[in-house]
Structure formats: structure tokens, C-alpha cells
Amino acid sequence: MSVKAFKLVSAVEREMLMGDKNYINIECIECCGKNLYIGTNDCFIYHFLLDEKISTAGKITFAATKQLHKYLGLKKPVSELKAASALTRLLVLCDNTITLVNMMNLEPVPTGARIKGAVTFALNENPVSGDPFCVEVCIVSVKRRTIQMFMVFEDRVQIVKEVFTPEQPCAVAVDGYYLCLALTTQYIILNYNTGVSQDLFPYCSDEKRPIVKRIGRQEFLLAGPGGLGMFATVDGISQRAPVHWSENVIGAALCFPYVVALDDEFITVHSMLDQQQKQTLPFKEGHILQDFEGKVIVATNKGVYILVPLPLEKQIQDLLASHRVEEALVLAKGARRNIPKEKFQVMYKRILQQAGFIQFAQLQFLEAKELFR
């Protein structure tokens, strides 16, 4: 049974990006605060400011204002963008080279600092250096079976470590000293400081696109065999039951308490609290789904959309209105980490009371008595 957890809202219309140039495609996106960056197949970066507007009826819309665009001078697509807001830098991967550009004017740093030979890269969101003016970057190197760790400063880069892997890596996520890697035939956790690795489970990267996503301290979300979204800690164990995706998931994102997944026809929403599928949104030709500081963004080749979460209280009330008491209580308990303590206690008491009356009306007196207590 469905819950209305998200609404899909358009953010950047096709005309704003490409006008009548049909050959332009969106390759990657990055969002940092109100700043939205788009990398295209014709080697341009576009910078938009996103403004969220709420109507008197509570309807949310987004107005995107184009700031500027910049040609990187190559005939290659911009394949990845990552913002390092503490350094006011944007890391841009194009033609196997990561270039540092200014977040505001998109100009390359004057020193010309860059990282060459990168296939893909990830930032360490739980850094180990303790330096606030440095970003830790892990790259999958063009050298066979090699991962490299870099420290990136405002105008220079410094290699810290080179680690060899048992098979060719194709995707990576980082947490502290731990790398979660998709290799050719399996996922592994690798501690790049000690060199100790732990096998997770088999996976064939030739058949499907791997998904490796850090979702919290020392925990990752992976696209597993049989269309399962699997959770794994750095110790190689799973503390949550998997969610059932379709076989051909392209991307996944986290917006607590939901895991959102994209395939070639739908966006699906699963609860991390009971693993049930809660919502399905038709969405054709999507090829990017990412979350940025709690904002979930999805894109086709031609447009960018935002998945706006409905307030958790509204979702709980909708569940109670449909007499889905168990689900409402699970969601209410899960909402504890998103709501200030005093406000939560008042809300939770009211929900228990409503749930009690529903059970009472259904003649489930014992259950009602517990809830009223």
C-alpha cells in the first residue's frame, strides 16, 4: 500500500539549459546549498541558483536562475562534479583529469593544480586529517587495479597513498580509512591505512551498474544480487534488512527514513524502518539520482527535478486516516531523530491517542488499552 512521501517538482527546464540545441545532454549534477551545477556532454559547466518558494496553499516550487556557464575547452563530456564548499572549490572530472575550479566564477585555480589519471572519484565525508582547509579525495586510477588517496587544498593537491586491489575497481565510497569498493566480480571493504580487506558479496559489474553509497558513519548502501539494496558496515556485516529493488536500478539516494531508487521507468521509495515499498513515481529516461545535504535530485538527459519530501507528520496522519496503525507508529518512532525532543514527545502522545481510538473502534480492546496507556 502506498504512502505519499515525496512530490516530484521541476527545477531546471530544458530550455534554460540548452535552448533549441538538442544535442546537449546532462551528464552530472552537484548541489551545494542553493548552488546547482550541471555538467554536459559538450564540456560545459552551468551554475544555477535554486530558490525554493512556498505558496500560501503550502505548494513548493523551485525557481532556477542561471548565473553563468563555462566551456572547459575539451571535446569530452564533464563526467563528475563535486563541491568542496570549505575551499570554495568545485572538483571537475573530465577526460580522466580532475581540475579545481572556483565555485563562483568557474575559473580554474591559478596554480593549475589537478589530479591526472582518474576514472571516477569520491570525497571522504568522514575525513581523517582533521584539517578543515583540506578535502580528502579517493580516485579509481587509470592504472590497473589501483586506488589513490589525495589531499586537496585550495590551490594544490598532494598524493597520500596508493593501494592495489585484487580486481579492477569500478566504483568507490569512502568513510574514514575505509573504502567500499565495487570490483569486477564482488564488493569489498578495504582499510587503506592497514591494507586489510573484507569480502562482502559477489556482484557482476559487466551485467549491471554497481551502486556504492555511503549513507552514514561506517555504513554503506549497495546494489546487491537479485535486485536487493543491501546495507553493509565497515565490519562487513549488515545491521538492517535489505530492500527489494528492481533488477535494473541505476541510482539510489537516502532521505531518512526512506531509501529512494531509480530504474529506467520508475522512482521507488522504500522505508528503512520496515523495508516496505511505500511509493512509486513514474519517471522515464532518468539517469541520475543523488542526494545532497538531504535534498534528493533526479535528472534526465534534458531536465532536473527535485523530490520534495512531505512533512513526516502529514505522512503519519495519512496512514492513521487509512487505519494503518502499525505503519504509522513505526514511522512516528523513526521520526524521532528528525524532530526536536519536546516537539516529538507532544506529537508522539497525540499519535498514540489517535491510534488507540482507531483500534478501539475496530474492537481491538487490548491493543487500544496498551496505546492509551
TrEMBL record:
GO terms for cellular component: cytoplasm; membrane. It is found in: Cytoplasm. Residues 23-296 form the CNH domain. Pfam families: CNH. InterPro entries: CNH_dom, Vam6/VPS39/TRAP1. The keyword NADP does not apply. Keywords: Cytoplasm, Protein transport, Transport. The keyword Transmembrane does not apply. It comes from the Eukaryota. One of its GO terms (biological process) is protein transport. This is TGFA1 protein. The lineage of its organism: Eukaryota, Metazoa, Chordata, Craniata, Vertebrata.
